[in-house]
Design goal:
By secondary structure, the protein is mainly α. It contains 5 helices and 3 strands.
């Protein structure tokens, strides 16, 4: 999947922009890493969406048309990926496309599992205590009085 970005190359040799090519579907490493992070959500060490986006780009970018200052092709390496990731305006459109390609594929099984485990649904009848009022009011009871013969 190709994504067009602005051309950051010296002299702007690509007036129509550069192209970054992403994998069409996530790798096993992407999926298991993202799902592992999702499993850690109850801890303080849960990943941010930025970390997930970065992982998608590090593992998802196959090639690009960026050039070095001397005009030679800039290879896709850890160092040049850092260069891309350090430039928000350049990296963001690629991260958006990567999220579009990979997020649903990776998280759909987890969401389905969560959905199936919480299918309690609504009940038809109320489970609260019944608070019906009777139609007729009870008559007040007569005051009790103690007679002097009962008190002795």
């Amino acid at each position: 999947m190709d994504v067009t970005t602005t051309c950051p190359c010296s002299g702007t040799p690509h007036p129509d922009g550069d192209t970054v090519t992403l994998r069409d579907k996530p790798t096993l490493m992407m999926g298991t890493t993202a799902l592992g992070w999702a499993g850690q959500q109850a801890t303080d060490s849960k990943p941010t969406s930025g970390e997930i986006s970065e992982m998608f780009l590090r593992l998802g970018i196959l090639s690009w048309t960026y050039l070095e200052d001397d005009g030679t092709p800039k290879p896709v390496t850890d160092e040049t990926l850092d260069w891309l990731l350090d430039d928000y305006e350049l990296a963001y459109p690629v991260a958006e496309k990567a999220a579009e390609l990979y997020t649903e594929v990776i998280f759909a099984p987890l969401l389905k599992q969560i959905s199936n485990s919480s299918r309690t649904g609504r009940t038809n009848a109320s489970t609260s205590a019944n608070s019906r009022r009777s139609r007729s009011r009870p008559s007040p009871s007569e005051p009790s009085s103690i007679t002097s013969s009962e008190a002795s």
